[in-house]
Amino acid sequence: MPAxxxxxxxxxxxxxxxxxWSDMDAYGHVNNVQYLRYLExxxxxxxxxxxxxxxxxxxxxxxVARTEIDxxxxxxxxxxPALVTLWCSRISGAAFDISYVVGQRGSDLTFAxxxxxxxxxxxxxxxxxxxxxxxxxxxxxxxxxxxxLRSHKDRR
Length: 156
Fold this sequence. Notes:
Layout (H helix, E strand, L loop, with lengths): L12 E5 L14 H20 L5 H4 L1 E10 L10 E10 L3 E10 L7 E11 L4 E2 L4 H9 L15
Antiparallel strand pairs: 1-3, 2-5, 3-4, 4-5, 5-6
């Protein structure tokens, strides 16, 4: 089973996410839909760390436009939390990408790699908005290279 070979950015956040018995599917490993929940939970905690406590990007408005996951190894239940390491891997006018590596405490395996595209959104007007300078500055602190996902081979 693969380990992480991609160099993780030094300012990436790592968030512990509980692996629950109910996350398992009939095959005895974490169900694919649970990975989306792990990524979401890690993102909420990372945004709190990256953007501060007074107002977060979550309250100002952000939508998930795309998520792509490469499943690399089955994660089975044990009492150790999943470890989701995440960082910003692209910033544009109104959107940004977050890259994720999903591991587990006590294991050197990488269970999944993922990437989400998020769009900053003006909730009151119901439309995308440009990324504010303070948000862009916070993202640049945790900016790193994108992960080599399987679909990226088609982009070359």
